[in-house]
Structure formats: C-alpha cells, structure tokens
Amino acid sequence: MKFDPDAAASEHSGIYGLPFKPAEAKVVIIPVPFEATTSYGGGTSRGPQAVLEASKQVDLFDHETGRPYEAGIAMLDIPRKIVAWNAKAKKLGRKKARTVNEISESVNDWVYEKTSALLDDGRMPVVLGGDHSVPFGAMRAYVERFPRMGILHLDAHADLREAYEGFTYSHASIFHNVMTRLPMARLVQVGVRDVGTAEMRMIEQSNGRIRTFFDDEIASRKEKGDSFAEIADDIVAELPDQVYLSWDIDGLDPTLCPGTGTPVPGGLSWNEAIGLLRAIRRAKKRIVGLDLCEVAPGETEWDANVGARLLYKMIGFALLT
Fold first, then answer.
1. What predicted TM-score, i.e. pTM, was given to this entire model?
2. Could you tell me the residue range of the domain that residue 121 belongs to?
3. What pLDDT, in 10s, does the model give residues 205-230?
C-alpha cells in the first residue's frame, strides 16, 4: 500500500507516522531515556517516548524544508538496557556518585557504539534525550569523522561545570567534558542565562575555543534595533563549515517547554530558534549531526509537541545543508 503523507498516522507506524525501518532510513533517531544526573526537576527519561507519540500529529510537509520525511526518518526502539541503567542510577543517587559515574560511562559507550555504527553505514544518527549528559558518546563519534566540526549549543545553561554534584558526566558538565576530553575546536553557545563563576572563567580562558552569546546580550542588541537575522548571522559566523547541533530545549522561552527540568526566564522564541537554522543555511554551512535533550512531558502534551516539531525542523534543515 502506497504511503500517504497526508493521512493520519497508523497505530503501529514509526516516528512522525512514517513507515520506515531503521535499515531503510537516512536519519535514525537514538532514544536515550537517561536522567540520573538531573539536579532539579525530573522527567526527561520519558522524553523520547513522549516525543515519539507527539510526533504523529506533525504534518510531514514543511513550508521551509519541503519533504524531509522522504529521505527516511526512523527511531530505534526504546532501549531496555538504558531504562534499567537509569532506574539503578537514580536509585543510587548522589550518595553513590562513583557507581553512577560508572553507569554513565556505560551509557556513553553505548551511545558511541550506536552512533559509530550508523555513521559507518552512511546514516545520520540523532540522539534524543534524556538529560543533556547523554550526547557525549555521539559527539565523540561525530568528531572522529568530522574533526573540523564545531558545536552550536542552544541552552539556558553553559553546562561547563566540572563533575557537578559528584557526577563526572552530569548534564551540567557535558561541555566541560567535550572541551577537555574531545578534540573539539569550537563551541558556540546561544541563549545562556544561567552561568557560574567557574564556567565564566573557563569561557574567558578558552582562547576563543568557546564563544558564548548570552541571552541578555542578544536582548540588548534587539532593543538597540538589530534584527535577529543580523544576530543569527553573527552567531553562525563563529562556527566552522561543519556544524553539530546540541540543543537543550530549555534554551527556548519556557512557555514552550514548561515541563523541562531547569526552566529559566528568557530564552529564544520559536522563530528565533528556527532563525538560527536559517542562518546556517544562508552561510552555506553544513549540519553534520544533532541531538535534542531535556524534553520532559509535563501535565499536558505541549512539551512533547514542541519537542517533536523542533526535532523535525532540525532534521529538515540538516538534510538541506
């Protein structure tokens, strides 16, 4: 039976109601339902399943990116191994941080192996968290293949803390680990509005490897009359030609993600976030990979709805560049 992109999603369809199996898809989503290092609100371990369910309400034709679904988008099954590791690590908590760190290393290795295998097979693996600790293994795999790539990091937080609350691979430490453990040339951060003194020191002493566009600086430029398109072009100009997107949904205005674990007032609007993707395309830079983290289903399906739509936009622009 021929697939109808305008029909309602069938009961047993895949992500976005699509009929593709992972072996048939260009884009393969790796769900990582892990949130053991969460330091405030929880729920992100339920994010991948919630996004999967919400995705079936997304219209497949996109006015900007056309028909990204035609390349094939599929999602791996929710991994029972990660679910079990998450339950064990959450139960152990901060009192057993050493053991939780060992579990986190196992998660990193699992994500790395999955990502590497998909890249070797010519596919674009996409990590769907979980908290923002989970894409470390994916970035490790990507930088091995794209050694000149830079990361565009959308977030309310700098995530440059060292071993936060005893967790080496904390969601608050992801980019400290990336910049100290991986050969990453460039990290460009956008929307940051919570930052610690040690994080600020790391930014200032990075010799330009870390460029942070703070939320208040963006707001100030807009107040003075700069368009967001001008600001986005300046942000993208700081990136190399190959770009990896690592987007924490709390980089958006919290009205778009009220259920996320650590919401902060401010942030980018929906159109500003998509404006960053437009700017990458204007600059003729290539999105080589991406992840989306910290989607936590709240009392309604709103967070998952926004997450599913943001993920589809990210994939669509990645396939265009």
1. 0.96
2. 15-320
3. 999 999 999 999 999 999 999 999 99
